[in-house]
């Protein structure tokens, strides 16, 4: 049996009132007597009446829906960020529609088209690993759709951005490895055009330079899909292990790359940290119970999600055009554990 929600028209018919009277009573209008209001509200409550959000949005000019575009929600960082977004959205009366690109540019474009067709009020975006052309976002932005970028951002659209301290995280992690006595330090990172890749690579390079350690280009390996395709990560690891001299330590520059690299090293029976130390960006809640416990650069994912949503709602509800935009950089935390510490 198909469920059909009760409408204002149904209430009016049941109580022998006009639709206008019922509507005003539900809105607590001064034009309607208290007795009539009580009667209408009681009937609506008893019959589980809910206002039609589509009809309301047409009146207010808002759909009260916000689209979110991320690579995948099983990534610890993104799942935590989405939790932060939903806290803010729920408190402000917005619904969140989440889509996943799985690091595919084509899927990102399709998802954005679908979301825009549903009359969303705004978008929160973290770019896919394949995205180099952001024309699909530019078009919507030029048409007036509020957009906020977080984590993986672009300078090509003037809007709010929320990122973490990518440079500092990679810099501090590399200095930590140097302090442990490692000088042959590699980095496994994501697609070379992503903002997080560029910033984390620069932090790694600067730390090596400040430590007087020459940069070896062959020690930097790019995984175009950021760990989504395990074969890419495995190829990067095997390439590093085949070098002479091979690295003593690896900095992994994204959540999925970190956990995948760790597990692959274990499968290859490479002792951690005896043969290869590892530290990486990951928000995995299990990092401390890895064997050995994983040294991690933790991003404030929940707060990044909250702040992204707060900034987007401000854009949506702004009474005047917004011309000044914020670039928020949130601090990261390096948690040192056994995976990166030289045995004593």
UniProtKB/TrEMBL annotation:
Alphabetical keyword list: DNA-binding, Transcription, Transcription regulation
SMART domains, alphabetized: HTH_LACI
Domain (HTH lacI-type): residue spans on this chain: 6-60
Coiled coil: none
Listed SUPFAM superfamilies: lambda repressor-like DNA-binding domains, Periplasmic binding protein-like I
One Pfam family of this chain: LacI
Molecular function GO terms recorded: DNA-binding transcription factor activity; transcription cis-regulatory region binding
InterPro entries: HTH_LacI, Lambda_DNA-bd_dom_sf, Peripla_BP/Lac1_sug-bd_dom, Peripla_BP_I
PANTHER family membership: HTH-TYPE TRANSCRIPTIONAL REGULATOR GALS, LACI-RELATED TRANSCRIPTIONAL REPRESSOR
Protein name as annotated: LacI family transcriptional regulator
């Amino acid at each position: 049996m198909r469920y059909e929600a009760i409408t204002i028209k149904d209430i009016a018919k049941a109580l022998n009132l006009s639709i206008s009277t019922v509507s005003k009573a539900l809105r607590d209008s001064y034009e309607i007597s208290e007795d009539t209001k009580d009667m209408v509200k009681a009937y609506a409550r008893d019959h589980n009446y809910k206002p039609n959000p589509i009809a309301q949005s047409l009146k207010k000019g808002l759909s009260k829906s916000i689209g979110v575009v991320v690579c995948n929600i099983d990534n610890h960082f993104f799942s935590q960020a989405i939790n932060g977004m939903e806290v803010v959205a729920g408190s402000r009366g917005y619904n969140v529609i989440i889509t996943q690109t799985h690091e595919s540019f084509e899927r990102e474009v399709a998802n954005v088209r679908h979301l825009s067709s549903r009359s969303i009020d705004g978008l929160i975006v973290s770019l896919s690993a394949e995205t180099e052309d952001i024309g699909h976002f530019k078009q919507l932005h030029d048409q007036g759709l509020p957009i906020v970028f977080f984590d993986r951002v672009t300078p090509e659209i003037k809007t709010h951005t929320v990122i973490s301290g990518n440079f500092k995280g990679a810099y501090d992690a590399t200095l930590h490895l140097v302090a442990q006595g490692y000088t042959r330090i590699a980095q496994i990172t994501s697609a070379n055009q992503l903002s997080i890749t560029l910033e984390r690579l620069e932090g790694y390079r600067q730390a090596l330079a400040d430590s007087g350690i020459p940069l070896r280009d062959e020690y930097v390996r790019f995984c175009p899909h950021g760990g989504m395709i395990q074969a890419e990560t495995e190829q990067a690891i095997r390439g590093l292990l085949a070098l002479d001299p091979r690295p003593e330590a690896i900095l992994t520059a994204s959540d999925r790359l970190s956990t995948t690299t760790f597990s692959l090293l274990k499968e290859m029976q490479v002792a951690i940290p005896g043969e290869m130390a590892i530290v990486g960006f990951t928000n995995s809640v299990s990092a401390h119970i890895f064997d050995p416990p994983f040294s991690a650069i933790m991003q404030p994912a929940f707060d990044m999600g909250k702040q992204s949503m707060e900034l987007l709602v401000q854009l949506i509800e702004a009474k005047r055009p917004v011309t000044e935009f914020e670039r928020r950089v949130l601090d990261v935390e390096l948690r040192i554990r056994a995976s990166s510490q030289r045995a004593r």
